[in-house]
Each structure stands twice: as structure tokens, then as C-alpha cells.
Amino acid sequence: METEEVKMSEKESIELIASMINQAKNRVGETGKLYILWGWLILICCIIQFIGLHFFQYEKSYYVWFLTWLLLIYQIFFLSKERKNRKVRTYTGEINGFVWLVFFICMMLVTFIGSYLKKYEMIYPVLLVLYGMPTFLSGIILKFKPLIIGGICCWALSTFSVFISGDYQLLLVSAAVIAAWIIPGHILQQNFKKGI
Amino acid sequence: MEEKKLSEKESLELIANMIGKAKNHYSESGASALLWGITNVVCFILAYLQETVRGFNLPFSPFYLMIVTAILQVYFYRRERGINKTISYKDEAHYFIWLAFGISLLILTVAGGFADIGYIVLPLILLLFAIPTFISGCIKKFKPLIIGGIICWLLSIISFFYRENEVFLLVALGAFFAWVVPGIILRKRFYKNIANQHNGV
What we know:
Number of strands of chain A: 0
Radius of gyration of chain A: 20 Å
Distance between the termini of chain B: 41 Å
Strand content of chain A: under 5%
Order of helices and strands of chain A: HHHHHHHH
Largest sheet of chain A: none
Oligomer: heterodimer
Order of helices and strands of chain B: HHHHHHHH
Strand content of chain B: under 5%
Shape of chain B: elongated
Largest sheet of chain B: none
Largest interface: A-B, 34 and 38 residues
Number of helices of chain B: 8
Structural class of chain A: mainly alpha
Structural class of chain B: mainly alpha
Number of helices of chain A: 8
Helix content of chain A: over 70%
């Protein structure tokens, strides 16, 4: 069937642009759901590993981090479902996607290579530098101050972490995820519910 | 003074004009990538020579050149911003990506220096090089930058395991692919566009 292309007037074009912008508002990132899920999971992993290492000297307590794979699988399904339902792709959403993709690649490289080389003391300070980047950039992209402050907190904690040894670095990572993801995530969620 | 009301057609023309004006020539012409890339290549080659060639000692650390270049980059960006008044969303995002990279690099080198983390700082620098390069490539939809970023990640993996002085050269190579090559391509494209505009193409 042949479809006829509808020509729009300037007024209609502007209305279309405005409606697309409105439709694209409050996307999943802005509901804070993923920040909250990742924030809490990493916090729980850090605390369990810290307790395992510090109080029970259980070397294999790092196994708890395999929980992150479950959340990752959920996120992949969640995002692909969300992408199917999405009618409009925003520029901010696209940039944010690239920023988090790069963060994920770097985090994987640092974790795998650091563990392989047994350079455990370098993993957490570098992870904190990496946490700071996407958090800060997402804050700039979404024009949302709590994320910007969270990113800066990660960088400050990273600088501090090189002077802290062993298990205690895990507590700094815990503080970082609270500042960078959990608090901004809950604020985003509240704003979303209020329709801000 | 009476405020002039624009028709829809005039509004669209104004938006199109602003987008055109907001183009950042310093970044679009490849000058920014070339300046930063060449500085990095020179710094890491000089650092390699200092480590390996007996009697080759500079009166200063070659990495101070990077601070000078970083200051120049900020100066050129701000000058461009002053001239254009309007900065596109893409350029703004670009600026903050590089700012975040600069802060991360500074933390890594300064805090890493205090903690004496040793050779491992070089693969980590390569890892950081890849971040703004890959993201910029994705935002601009410019493949040479994306490829440059991926090359930096691959060189980072190699340099994690190869603990010799030659890692300095790998970092220089990473900077070459991440910025010098894309910078040259951008520059050629920029002058070609100018020539086409002059010829009325």
C-alpha cells in the first residue's frame, strides 16, 4: 500500500518538537530506579565482603560480587523492553547511554586485570575514580545537582582511599555509592512521583 | 523599545542560524585533538628516552608540558565560547566529558604518585585516554575517534602485562591513534568544507 507523506507547516513542526520533548521527559534514568538498584546492591556487597574479611578472615567473601551479574542480566532485559516501548530517543539519553557503556567497559577491565595481577590495593581507588566520571557526567547531562555532588564525592574518596589500607577501602566504596547513587536515586524517584 | 514577535518560519530560521553559529571551530577543525595528541606523544617519548638513554636528562619533567596544553585548551574553549555566545548541547557535553577526564587523570597521577603505585599508572592512563575519546566519537558519530578509543583499551590491556619501559611508547602510540590521527582527518575535512563553501558547492 502506498502511503502519502504528510507535509507539515512550521507551526506543526514546532508543536511536534515540543510534544516529542515532553514525551521524552521522565525516562527510566530519571525515575532513579537503576541508580537505587545498583546503589543498594553494591552497598550490600561491600558490607558483606568487609564483614567477611575483617571479622571472619574469609578470603572468598568476594564471591558476593557475583550478585551483580544477576542485576546486570535484569538490567539488560529491562532496558531492551524499555527500548521497544520507547517512541522517542532523546539526545541526552543517547549521550548518557554512551557514558555508562564506557564506564562498564572500564570497570570490567580494571576488575578482571587487577584481580588477575593480584593488584587488589589498586582496584578500589581506581573504581572510585571511575564511579565519579559517569555520575558527574550524568548529573551535568540531566542537570541534576545531587549526581554532580555524588561524582565529586567519589573523586574525593578516591584520593583519600590511597592512604587507607585493605578492608577499609570497602567502607569508602560504600560511602561513595550512598553519595553517588543511593541518595540521588531516591531524590530522582521522589521527583518522578511528584511529577517534577 | 518594542519586542519583535517572530513568526514560526522566522523562529525555525533563527534556530538553524544558532546551530550554525554554535559550531565550535576549535574542536571541529581538529586543532584541539592535534594539540593534545601531539603533546602527549612528545611527553611520553621524552619520558621513555629519560628512562632508557643514559645522559638524557631534561631539567624538568616532560609531563609539565601536559599542564601547559591543558591550560591552553581551556583558554581556547573559553575564547570560542566568548566569540560564539551560543554553545551547542553537543559541545557542552563534550567540554564536561573532557573536564571529567582531566579531573580523573589528575587524581590518578597525583594520588597514585603519593601512593607510589608504580608502573601500573601507565596502563591506567591508557584506560582513561579511551574514555573521552570513545564517548566523543559516539557523540560526533566520528569513527576514527571510536577506533582510537578501542585501540587505547587494547594497548591498556597489553601494557598491564608488559612491565617494561616500552610501555611509555605504548602510551605515546595510544595518544597517536586517539587524537593525532582523528585530528588530522578532522583538519582535512574542515579545510575541504571551507574550500567547498568558497567554491559555492
